[in-house]
Each structure stands twice: as C-alpha cells, then as structure tokens.
Amino acid sequence: MEIQALLITFREVLEALLIVGIITTYLKRTNNQKFTKYVWLGAGLAVLASVGVAMLFQVVFTGFTAMGSEMYLKIGIMVVSTVLLTQMVFWMASHSRNLKGNMEGKMNQFITAGNIVGMVIHSFLVVLREGVETVFFFAAITGGNIGAAMQGWGAITGAVIAATISYFFFKGTMRIPLKSFFKVTGAFIILISAGLLVQAISMMQDINLIGSVVPHLYDITWLLPEHPIDYAHYLRDHGVAPLLSGDVGIFLKALFGYSSMPSIEEVVAYIGYFAAIYLLTSSKTNKEKAVKSAETVTKMNVLNPQAK
Q1: Single pTM value for the model
Q2: CA-CA distances (angstroms) from residue 259 to 8, 119, 187, 220?
Q3: In degrees to the nearest 10, what's the CA dihedral of 28, 179, 163, 32?
C-alpha cells in the first residue's frame, strides 16, 4: 500500500505543483506578481476542499459498512479508480508538451480582463482535480481507509519528493524532460491500475456477483504465495516451503494485483487491459505522426511554393 501511495501522491502532487509553478512563474516574468496570492488562494482552497471530500468519503464508506454493503462500494471505487488512473495518464501524455503554453494563455486572458475570480477558480479547479483523484486512489488501495493512506510514510514521502523536485525545477537548478518523466511514471500508474481492475474482478467473484468458467487457471503458490498465510498453509500441506516468501507476494498483490491462483476472467481482464492500452497508445502515436507530417508538408509548401 505504501509504495502505491508514494507513487500516486508523488505523481498527483507534482502535477499540481508544476501547474501552479508555471502560473506563478509566468506572473513573475510579466511583472504581475500582485496576482500570485490569488493563485495560491485557489490552490489552498482546493487542498481544503480535497480534505473535505476525503472526510465525506470516509463517512459514506462507514455508512456502507454499517449496512453490510462495503464490498460493493470497494468494487465501485476500484473500477472508478482504474478509469481515473488510465484517463490521468493519457491526459498528461497529451498535454505535457503544451501544458506551459496553455496555462500561460489562460492567465494572460484573466490578467487582460482583470478577472481575479476566474484566476482563483482556475487554480482551484486545477488543484482540486488532483486532490479528488488522490482521494479515490487512496480509497481504492486501502479498501476505504483513506486516513491510513494519508498518514502513512508513502503519501508523506511522495509529497515531499514532489515538492522538492518542483522547488529545484522552478529555481532552474534541475531540468526535467516532462514528456519522458510522465511516460515513466505513467507506466507504473498503468500497472497499478491493471492491478486494481483485477482485484475488483476477484472481489466480484468472491461475493458471487459474477461467476467463473475456470476459478483457478493455474496455481503457482509453490513459487510465490500471495500472502504469508498461504505460505504457511502450503508448508503445512506439502512439507516443503514455497521458493519465495509470502511477504513478497502480498507486496506485489498490493502494488500490481498479483495472484498465485487467478481465475481465467482475471487473467483475461489483465491481458485485455494492457492490449487496450497498447491499441490506444498506437492510435494516438499514429495520429500525432500524421499531424506532424501534415504540418511539415504545409511548411515546405509555404517556404517553397513552386514545389507544389
């Protein structure tokens, strides 16, 4: 859980700080520092609102637990988090290149119109988006115990690392190739997302919400049990210990949704998810290449009209 919390918090906090940093740097560069306080006001209100969302979420989850329906809520959280994580990765991959220009363009519009309220609302929404996503992800990886994730070393470490990198980045002492950076972190987020999807399917099968054609497609408990209890049971039943510790299994299960005895539906969902990601990525790459090719041809025609 802590590694997941670290990666998610690091990514979300860094995105928020990069956007706020781009805005405040632009205001300083254009001698409009007087508006900086309004940007931070919006960001601060968004943090408070995110905490409020987390508290409300916890109250709702407690209510579902009292009604004996927490499993349904957990499944819903995992499915929604899978969608949000996937969308987040693709959104940042599409906007990382033009993020700076887009943010500066919006700020210029607000400054020209003297729209302070719009400036506050814009920074509020930018940070709130990251905050609400974080709440959902924490709920998914902890089974609804958001407070445990917020107070754990993973979330705190992720936030500190993100703040440190942002500070040195905007001080000019650190260069970050944003596109490559978000590709690497995005790959880890996709792995976490796939794990959440598989765990949601496993939980649906546990409560008989959906059935299974093949409940256990294979069994590699002998190699890597997914929990220390499974390790102990295997040792008791076979008189031989599995090759790897159950502590490794529980770590991989929490991080990537590992299962030593997955159903065929879990395996199909896992492979299908990555296949869908590959197809979406390939389609996006082909479209970008087509656009670049068209732009190159247009520039060549403008520079050399007789070449038409």
Answers
A1: 0.76
A2: 22, 47, 20, 9
A3: 10
